[in-house]
Amino acid sequence: MAVGQRDLGKGIASISTIERAVNLQKQQLEAEQKVNEKVEDKAWMASLARSYALGAELLRGSDKSKCAKGLRWAHEALSIAAAVDGDVLKMEQADILNAIGNVQADLGRYNDAGNSYKVSLSIHEKLEPNGNTATTAAVYGNLGSLLHRQGRFQEAITMYEKSMKLQEAVLAPSNPDIAVTCNNLAVSLYEKSMKLQEAVLAPSNPDIAVTCNNLAVSLTKLGKLEDALEYAKRAVALVDESDLQESNGDKQLFGATLKHIQGQIGKQAAHKSMRVQEQ
Question: Rg of the chain over CA atoms, in angstroms?
Answer without folding.
Answer: 23
